[in-house]
Amino acid sequence: MSRQQAAAGRRQAPARNGGNPGGRRLWRSLSVIVLLLPAAAVLLPTTLVLTVCMMPTLAAWLVDRQPGRALATSVCLLNLAGSLPGVIGVWTAGHDVAAAQWVLSDAVTWLAAYGAASVGWLLFAVLPPMLRAHHARGTARRIRQLQKRQEALEKDWGPEVAADVKAAAEAAGDGTEAPAQAA
Amino acid sequence: MSQAATKDRAGEDADRPAADGPGGAARAAGDAGKRENAPGDKAAADKAAGDKAAGDKAASDKTRTAKGAPGKTGTESAGAREAALGKYITIDRTARLPHLDRPTAQAYAATDSRTPTEQVFVLVCDPKVPPRLDALQGLAKLRGVPLMIPVDWGPVAWGDGGERRYAICYDRPVDPVLAPVGGELPQMREDQLIERILRPVFRTLREMYARGMTHRALAASNVFLAEGGNGACLMGECASAPAGMTQPAVYEPIDAGQALPVGRGSGALSDDLYALGVLMALILRGSDPFQNSDPAAIAAQKITRGSYAAIMGQARVSLTLMEPLRGLLCDRIDERWTIHQLETWLNGRRQSPKQPSLPIKARRAFTFQGRDYWTAPALSHALANNWPEALRVLSSGELERWAERSLADDKQSKQLAATLASAQAGDGGDDRALARALVALDPAAPVRLRDFAARIDAIPQALALGFDDRDRRTSFVEVLRSKLPQRWLEAQPQQRPDHPQVLQQFERMLWYIERDQPGFGMERVLYEYNAGWPCQSPLLAGSYVSDMEDLLPALERRAEQDIPDGAPIDRHIAAFCGANMKPPPDRMIQGLGDPSPANRAQATVTLLADLQRRYGPAQLPALCEWTARRLAPLTDSLHNRQVRDKVKRRIERAVKSGSLAELRAACASNELRQRDQQAFKQAKAQYAQLAKDIAWLEEGGLTSPSNVARSTRTVATAVSAITSGLIVILVTIVYVT
Q1: How high is the mean pLDDT of chain B?
Q2: Nearest residue on chain B to A154, judged by CA atoms?
Q3: Is the dihedral of CA B218, B223, B229, B231 positive or negative?
Q4: Which residues of chain A lie closer than 8 angstroms to B722, CB-CB?
């Protein structure tokens, strides 16, 4: 490699890094870790308690591959809220490793943290059938509302306002399927 | 017109004492002899005649503008026997005066309420042959000349069907005409001929020439004797028919005689002087040698022998009269006597008689249909009168060979050869080629194409008087498209300063004809180039509408009878408006040809409203209703039902008011229609979106796994956030307290 080619490669390297989203994410994660590590070292008892209590969140994070990670977010929020008594317990007990051991040995701490996290999991188990039933009930009502709005438009503008929709339906060969065709 | 003249006369009554002096003395009666008066009332009649003569029709335009309701010019009186022309003239429809009839007008006895002792008569014109409206105003201003001067004129209600005809009122002459049609001419000595015929006619023609008018109806059957034949003659009327149309062919110069009677045109003073020459010649000869001849034969004789020799034959004339006769009957216009030369002769200056200049003979005769023709004009005339045979001759090439070898005039020969060469190159077909060849053979002749023959200035009139004839219209279009007028003008040996203007007129005519939309086409040519021509619309049949002011009242009367199915503005009315409205409403007229019915309806109501604004009258309820019925496309073009109903209600109110302007305002404006259109587009889009939403719901879109999953994520996140927040608050409160 000539000297000029090496220089060109050096000039293009930052551009390549800047243009790679995976690279950016890695750098960001490393930055967070570098910032959090001193805090975790200073607050080691708290870190120990949170690490143990937040295991359900880690599991949810690994399981949830949907965009937005709604499951992980829900579990995380509730898990964090459930871990709060344990953290406060460490702080009130002197904030040392012994206090952390004492808090982690308390079943209530585990129950609160894991119980709250399980509520997050439970929501994703219970909500779909409930929402499906709710939507099923609302569909007919919603259709009636939309049809009323269509009727109002026809009253104001005459049947020709629906001409395009009906023409499309007729072109499809079945007038009854007009809305479906339009959709 | 009638109201104008009527008003003038009313004004004359008021000014009678003042007008009773020199104006009365200058009355034509002084020259032309007495009119018919009741016995014993001559003094009063003379006074009245003087009053009439003193009246000036110059204020007529102002009067017309001031009048309130056009259409009331001529109204039928209570009895069907009488009809009123203006305010003062009453026509007795039962009293025909056949001896005063004109070829296209019937004479009826009439009375003038302003001058009850003086007898007048009215010529009721043929509805298909309009009078010379452009000449009436000028004729009414003539004073002190032996000429029948129109007293009053205008449309009158005629018949029971609401028909209107144009009528012209004149003083009734007492003495008979010089010679009725086909009758014998009176014998006169030369001095009598000069004093009774030549001088009075000269004075009249000089006065008309000074005002830029022509008579074009000078014939023995239209000249009245006076004082039992001992006084100066009275020239008959000349306004009841288009110029030259009713003139016997013998009185017309060769070119006018070759043209159709409707294609002779107003011509020039030289035509009147020629007619004077013919009249003198016939009186001197004592008979009409062409009494039973057709116009083509008369023209052929005149071409071959010259007018003087053809008319006079072997009759002898004194050298004194031979001079004006030869001068007036000269066939070349540039050599024909002018009014000044005639005046000089009448003042006593004598010269040697002018020798006739006949066309130059060819070296060899051209034989056509068994006859030998030695001159190009004679051959041209023969070819024009045997069109099918002439086409055969043209295609055989004989004419080209004859022109090259035998014509003495090299320029004419070359021109003819060029014309024939262009014809052989396929430039326009045989008829056009022959027509161009005829122009090259005889540039003085009228423009001729098949049965069409008209002088250059009478081509639009020939179209107008044969507008119902399809062949005439076709010929007219072909004349324009083949640029025959241009060829004719180019072929003239002497170019006149007005030729470019004439050329431009014909180019403009072609421009109109090439446009087929309403307001243009043949109809526009008809009205644009025939001033005062009545509108030929079937909607106005029998109404005789020649003024813009009469148009809306006529349509109102039509709508009162029964509202037609068609629009109130058809092609004729659109063209009539385009030609007569100043400035022309071009944008509105163009709108009448718009493909969109709504835009057409908008243009119609806009034009009608503009007409009402300019010419009145203020109330036209029947026409409003007619127009409103035609506005359906306009209101139907509005999509919003509320706006549509609102516009309809406004239209109904406007119809009741009878105001077209209000009707136009009630109609949806362009801006409103555009807004409505935009809103309608949005409504359609909204409707389509609703349809899509419904379809999605019906397909189970809301309960689909993906939608449920999405809802679950949203709801779960929200619930967990709220719950965790509540927990944090609760824990905080517990530990703090």
Answers
A1: 83
A2: B687
A3: negative
A4: none
Question: Strand, coil or helix: what is B75?
Answer: strand
Helical (H) or strand (E) element with A77: helix A70-92
Chain B residues near residue A156 by CB distance under 8 angstroms? 640-642, 683
Cα–chain center distance at B605:
26
Order of all β-strands in the sheet with B82-85: B74-76, B82-85, B89-96, B105-112, B119-125, B164-171, B152-157
Task: Give the torsion sign (CA, B100, B101, B105, B108).
Answer: positive
Instruction: Say yes or no for a CB contact (<8 Å) between A75 and B721.
Output: no
Query: Out of B687, B694, B721, whose CB is closest to A153?
Result: B687
Q: Can you tell me the distance from the alpha carbon of B405 to that of B393, in angstroms, rounded to the nearest whole number? A: 16
pLDDT of residue A46: 92
Tell whether the model's pLDDT for residue B36 goes beyond 50: no
Question: What tokens appear for A168 in the block?
Answer: 């499309």
Q: How far is CA B38 from the centre of its chain?
A: 40
For chain A, the average pLDDT equals 82
Contact at 8 Å (CB) between B232 and B33? yes
**B179 φ, ψ (degrees, to nearest 5):** -155, 125
Nearest to B696 among A77, A162, A183 (CB): A183
Question: 3-state class of B221 per DSSP?
Answer: helix
Q: What whole-number distance in Å separates Cα of residue B298 and Cα of residue B261?
A: 14
Q: What is the pLDDT of residues B44-78, one digit of tens each?
A: 333 333 344 333 333 333 333 333 333 344 444 44
Distance from first CA to last CA of chain A, Å, rounded? 60
Report the residue from A78, A85, A119 with minimal CB separation from B731: A85
E strands, B160-282, in order: 164-171, 223-224, 234-235
Q: In DSSP terms, which residues pair with B449 in a beta bridge?
A: B452
ipTM score over 0.95, yes or no: no
Name the minimum distance, in Å, from the CA of B429 to any CA of chain A.
53
Could you write out the DSSP letters of every residue in B676-731? HHHHHHHHHHHHHHHHHHHHHHHTTTTTSHHHHHHHHHHHHHHHHHHHHHHHHHHH
Beta partners for residue B170, in sequence order: B121
The pLDDT > 90 percentage for chain B reads 46
pLDDT digits (tens, 9 = 90+) for B103-154: 999 999 999 999 888 889 999 999 889 999 888 989 999 988 999 999 999 9
- Pull the structure tokens for residue A52: 């143990």
Q: Which residue has tokens 């023409």? A: A167
Angstroms from A36 CA to nearest CA on chain B: 23
**B699 lies within 8 A of chain A by CB:** yes
Query: Which among A139, A158, A182 has CB closest to B691?
Result: A182
Q: What angle in degrees, to the nearest 10, is found between the helix axes of B319-328 and B269-285? A: 140
- B24-33, B185-194, B197-206, B620-629: least confident range: B24-33
B449: enclosing H helix or E strand: strand B447-449
> CA A77, CA A80: separation in Å to the nearest integer?
5
- Encode pLDDT of A141-183 as tens digits: 899 999 999 999 989 898 888 888 888 887 776 545 444 444 3
CB-CB contact of B84 with B90 (8 Å): yes
Those residues whose C-beta lies under 8 Å from the C-beta of residue B503, and which sit 6 or more positions away, are: B485, B486, B489
For residues B718 and A181, the answer to whether their CB atoms sit within 8 Å is no
Closest residue of chain B to A163, computed from CA coordinates: B684
Phi, then psi, of B186 in degrees rounded to 5: -70, 150
pLDDT at B320: 85
- What is the per-residue pLDDT across A42-75, written as a single tens digit (0 to 9) for each? 889 999 999 999 999 999 999 888 888 889 999 9
Question: How many Cα atoms sit within 13 Å of B319 on the Cβ side?
Answer: 4
In angstroms, rounded to a whole number, what is the distance separating the alpha carbons of residues A26 and B606? 76
